[in-house]
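Appendix C: a fully annotated inverse folding record. The material below is reproduced so that readers can follow the format used throughout the book. The structure is listed first as tokens, followed by the designed sequence.
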């Protein structure tokens, strides 16, 4: 069975990218990252890719006359490599409708809340965690979901919760949830690569029990 070809889109440090790279290198994900693309020239995630001999590409929005042409430039890079799965790992640009349609049910995103709470337009980065703190929630967490034409509205693949303590602030909560992201995003990629994900309307069925050993250190 040929390995799943993965593209990872990033805008920042790429710690979620690194979590996927580590699982691939350990043999726990039967796929390969064929390209990493960033809309930020100084995104450290590009350096993470280069250190692992993965093609790393910077595509500047300002080099294109409009939003559609920018997205088309990304699509062309994916097509060159016959990409099967697109992973948004801290990617802060909205994908065009054509992009989403072309890769329907083949784009996954990690979001730092328990969707449908604190998600959608304007909820990204530290803003998500500040909103959770301000609201006074007792639990928060992370979600991995398929991307559709809405903002954080696609079918949910995996979620995991974390307790919000009285002492937490946006920064400490962000660090707690980042650890969860590093667990569940690679796990969702693993299931996709193994063909174990089935979408039934809004529900995602994983065709085996959650792999508890996946995130254990060897």
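Designed amino acids, in order:
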């Amino acid at each position: 069975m040929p390995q799943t070809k993965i593209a990872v889109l990033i805008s920042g440090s790429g710690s979620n990218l690194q979590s996927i790279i580590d699982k691939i290198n350990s043999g726990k994900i039967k796929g390969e990252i064929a390209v990493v693309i960033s809309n930020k020239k100084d995104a450290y995630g590009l350096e993470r890719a280069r250190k692992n001999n993965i093609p790393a590409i910077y595509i500047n929005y300002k080099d294109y006359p409009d939003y559609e042409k920018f997205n088309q430039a990304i699509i062309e890079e994916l097509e060159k490599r016959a990409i099967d799965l697109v992973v948004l790992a801290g990617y802060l640009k909205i994908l065009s409708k054509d992009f989403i349609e072309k890769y329907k049910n083949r784009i996954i995103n990690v979001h730092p809340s328990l969707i449908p709470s604190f998600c959608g337009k304007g909820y990204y980065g530290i803003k998500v965690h500040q909103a959770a703190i301000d609201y006074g929630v007792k639990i928060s967490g992370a979600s991995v979901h398929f991307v559709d034409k809405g903002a954080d509205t696609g079918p949910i693949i995996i979620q995991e919760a974390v307790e919000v303590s009285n002492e937490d602030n946006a920064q400490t909560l962000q660090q707690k949830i980042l650890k969860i992201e590093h667990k569940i995003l690679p796990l969702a990629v693993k299931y996709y690569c193994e063909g174990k994900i089935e979408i039934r309307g809004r529900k995602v069925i994983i065709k085996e029990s959650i792999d508890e050993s996946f995130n254990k250190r060897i």
